[in-house]
Amino acid sequence: MPKGENEHGKRRYRLRGTPRGGLAMGTFGFFIGFAAVALYGPAAHNFQTSMGISGFLLGLLVAAPQLTGSLLRIPFGAWVDKGGGRLPMITLFLISIVGMWGLVYILFSVPHVTFSLYPVILLFGFMSGCGVASFSVGIPQVSYWYPRRLQGTALGIFGGVGNLAPGIFTLLLPIAIGAFGLAGSYLAWLLFLLAGMIVYAVLARDAWFFQARAQGAEEAEAEAVAAAEGQELFPTQSVWGALLSAAEEQRTWGLVFLYFVSFGGFLALTAWFPTYWINLHHVGPREAGLLGGLGFSILAALSRILGGALSERAGGERFAVFSFSLVLLGALVLTFFMGFGIDLAGELLIAIGMGFGNAAVFKLVPKYVPHAVGGASGWVGGLGALGGFVLPPVLGLFAGALGARGYAGGFTAYVVLSAAAIALAVAFMRQERRVVQAAQR
Question: Percentage of the chain surpassing pLDDT 90?
Answer without folding.
Answer: 34
